[in-house]
Amino acid sequence: MSRILSFRRVGLTFSAQIYNQIVILGVQLVQVPFLLAAWGSERYGGWLVLYAVPSYLTLTDLGFTSVAKNQMVIHAAKADRTGVLRVYHSVFALLLVATAVILGACILGVESVSLTTTFALGPLSESEAKQTILFLVGSVVCYQFLLLLGSGVRASGRPAAEVIAAATARLLEGVATVAVALVTTRVELAALAVLITRIGMVIGVWTWLRIVAPEIRLGLKNARLDEIRRMANPSFSYMLLGLAQAIAIQGPIVLLGALATTQETVLFSTSRTLARMGTSAANLVNFSFAPEYSRMHGEGNRSAFARLRKIHVLIGLVGIPAYGIGLWALGPFIMALWTHGHVAVVYPFFALMNGAVAAEMLWGCLFTPIAAINRHVRLSYIFVGLTMVCAVLAYSWAVSWGATGVAAALLLLHVAMSVLVLLLRPRG
């Protein structure tokens, strides 16, 4: 019976992840034409710049909400309510302090610079730009609290509900942005709509969680500085892992933009986007399994944990080669259709990129059960180091071989990480 319930939870979470991906793609596809038509390309371009700047503040929690999510599920599986609240309240206190610092610094920073001089914002005035960016900063801060509430939802045994809440928040934000754009060209009002939507979602999830899981209450009573200290290393290493992954994804474009031709930059970007569709699919599976790993670890059920990992790895060992072979066979046709013949698949570059993505999918699968129990510290720092080495190699090889050299460096990075995750994974 427990095995059936376990697979049911994974299945429900997987379904929720599919809904999340549909929302992400739907919002991206629908927003662009509506906002372009309503605002024009220059105003929309200014909005994109202002929207991108506060996104870097998502790292200000230093990875604590991600680590807290796993730790709270582990405590909940042990029926350790005090442990759940200790983590929950400690991270809540940390976010309150971080929020005060961030908002104060952003208000002072925005008032001290000229945004229209610093960025190309098209027809946006200085006043519009400053109001917009402050509203967007506020929405990013609200999102951190939504993530923390998501930890409470997951700890209550409802990982699918956590995903659905986050996806629904994203959907409502997209709808609110388009709705405002259809009425007015004032982008600051669109930013305000995003902020109000996020505040509403935070209040909604908080209220719902109080009803369905009153034992997991947000507060400060159980906050402990020692708990923050215990979580610091796993949290910081998790944050660095995300930064390194961002560098590995976005860095090559910057590098090729400086060293290669525009044609090679376009070739790399489009080929990578096509190849990484498999990564998105793999993440659907990985994110669906992660909450169950945390729960089984907290219960001390090693046999069930090992059995789930075998099934997870088996899915990867079947799915990853199938995707790679399919992409190898259909890649040229898909690329020609997608780009209307403007970009063609080039070998050996495309084969190297395909291999790099397959290796990334493999180590992502192997890494998921490790990260789900917060035992990722050593491997996270190793990946950061490997990424720095890869950056040096990518620069050197880009000078000689352009996009092909960068793809070769990425392949080396992800193959090395796959081997190391397999060899260095925790045994206990």
Automatic annotation (TrEMBL):
Keyword tags: Cell membrane, Membrane, Transmembrane, Transmembrane helix
InterPro entries attached to this UniProt entry: Poly_Biosynth_Transport
Keyword Repeat recorded: no
Parts of the chain that traverse the membrane: 21-40, 46-67, 87-113, 133-151, 189-209, 238-261, 311-338, 344-367, 379-398, 404-424
Subcellular location(s) of the protein: Cell membrane
Record's bilayer topology term: Multi-pass membrane protein
Protein known as: Polysaccharide biosynthesis protein
